[in-house]
Amino acid sequence: MDRNLLLTPGPTQIPPEICEALGRPIIHHRTPQFQNNIKEVIEGLQYVFQTKNDIYLLAASGTGGMESCVCNLLSPGDKAITVDGGKFGERWGDICKCYGVNADVIKVEWGKAVTPEQIQAALDKNKDAKAVFITLNETSTGVVTDVKAIAAVVNKTRAVLVVDAISGLGVVDLQMDAWGVDVVVSASHKGFMLPPGLAFVAVSPKAFKYVQEAKSPRYYFDFRKSKKALEKVDTPFTPAIGIVIALVESLKRMRAQGLDQLFAHFALLAEGTRAAAKALGLTLFPDETCMSCALTTINLPAEINGEKLVKTLRDVHGISVAGGQDHLKGKIIRIAHMGCLTEEDILTGLEYLEVVLKEQGYSFAPGAGVNAAKKVFTK
Amino acid sequence: MDRNLLLTPGPTQIPPEICEALGRPIIHHRTPQFQNNIKEVIEGLQYVFQTKNDIYLLAASGTGGMESCVCNLLSPGDKAITVDGGKFGERWGDICKCYGVNADVIKVEWGKAVTPEQIQAALDKNKDAKAVFITLNETSTGVVTDVKAIAAVVNKTRAVLVVDAISGLGVVDLQMDAWGVDVVVSASHKGFMLPPGLAFVAVSPKAFKYVQEAKSPRYYFDFRKSKKALEKVDTPFTPAIGIVIALVESLKRMRAQGLDQLFAHFALLAEGTRAAAKALGLTLFPDETCMSCALTTINLPAEINGEKLVKTLRDVHGISVAGGQDHLKGKIIRIAHMGCLTEEDILTGLEYLEVVLKEQGYSFAPGAGVNAAKKVFTK
Lengths: 379, 379
What we know:
The structure is a homodimer.
Chain A: E1 5-6, H1 16-22, H2 32-49, E2 54-58, H3 62-73, E3 79-84, H4 87-98, E4 102-107, H5 116-125, E5 131-135, E6 137-138, E7 143-144, H6 147-154, E8 160-164, H7 176-179, E9 183-187, E10 199-203, H8 205-213, H9 223-231, H10 241-257, H11 259-279, E11 295-299, H12 306-315, E12 319-320, E13 322-323, E14 332-336, H13 343-359, H14 368-378
């Protein structure tokens, strides 16, 4: 079995031309050649982030990028607002706590999205809040947040809006400048089709003022050092050279397709997958109003052993999907649409999902899922 | 000009079989397959670190690894001892300061090594010091530290000894367990012949007690999370999957050669390079008693424009060496011996060093450097 199809929400499949770039002999980072790579990469990222703001490259995976936002923006004792509606929203609260930041946590039922009204209420209650931390695409539940509406609320206050767009950027729309988002953090191994190990953080001038005032300790992740280095087309510490060079290829690919085309493509993959699930008699986990196009989260029937299903798909059929986390362990599967996945990849995933569901005794019209997706893809 | 020979002290050349591993399609990290990689990598690292201690994998470059030591071991107001005899020793002091740690900095002239007596005196003066931070191979000067002798001194106290072995590990001897070193930090892009972006930290049980007590904020770099994850052959956050997989190949190569063979090889390259410098009438920067075998630092004659020399070597001849930093800018060159470099690579570097020295009007017997090195290599 040679298939190794990643339908997981990170890492995502790496296309051949990016694999080729990753396997090239290394170059030194303090050279004009690498400076050209930095320049090209920053411009390309600005296109994907839809911003003119500075973007810092951090040699770290996504959580390092998230922590960099908290320790650069806030001081111990500062007030912030976080949203706990899944594993990754919860993480914002945990990081704040770790830095002695007083976070007012908005609890949201898993599968639902925080509303602008809830954010407004939290801001009204915490007039001294310095930052609001949200999640564009909550990977643990498959929920997308209405960042635009929330930005409109936060922008009327002194607080900065910080968005974890680790698994959503380049997959669903996020207009940093047009919507007025202050900080956006993303990472290499989701929409960018690269190995994990590189985080990106875009910072607005409003947010950078907070960076200059913040008293939390930080060295490796210090945005003041990043800004100074970026002015000289450099990074303050040795960058993840290999991934930066491969990012050049990844951004070429994304720009050639165009953001609107990408968003439409992922929306189509999501629509097809949702149709397939319904045709198989399965329900979707997230609320209908906030289903993300980055991944589709499907409830498994009670008789299905979800952990075994994920394992069989991977070990017998070479297809990786994600299971549920925490209280959803064994109860859902998550099928990603990000990166370079095609309609064909999704159909392959659905085909074997049917095989494994049947093996476990779940009854449905054979081929119903695949056919429903095909119908969406060819319309 | 297709040559791209890196004689720089990080990143170092990547051998073809490691480039191949870096270019492979990615696998998911929460799989038995990747767990096997983690297991193999930890065992291999324990061989290179000469330890049975836990080793944590951090998706970060070397400085992230250094910061992880400070924030995991110490609390604001704690006392520590650092050594400033070059850029990287200075960094320990800077990171301590950033975390509110009260560091007694031992100033050492660049080119000299800190002595066990100086460490003893600092410990006598600071009986409450909790940690001593030193540098195995000070890359900015080419000086190696006598870690064994210093460990013998520190081991008599309550302080833990933390060694930055980022550019020295696998290149010069460091016997973590036999010498009683408490924490050793290293990184992927020096002796391990990999791209930057992966740091390793080995932590003794004595040091882990401090980790449990320390009050500095840390989340992404939290060793408590790393330890818990390692027990399940996992990492707390998404690891640098691509580099970890390539590290399997790198460690196979290092183990096949054997540590003693590696140390002897780098010592030979250093001996040849030093002989070449002397034969060219050049002097060596570090004190004779503490010259590192990881790299050779050569003083340039006053008439030579060092920055131009480095640039010409790179842009005209495809050979990268490092220049000087800070007050040594333009005054020295640093030729690395680490990783997969061969005698032939060093001879090529020396050949073009002669070409560029001659171009800049420096007079010497043509071929004297190359021949002196050859003589050492063939003896």
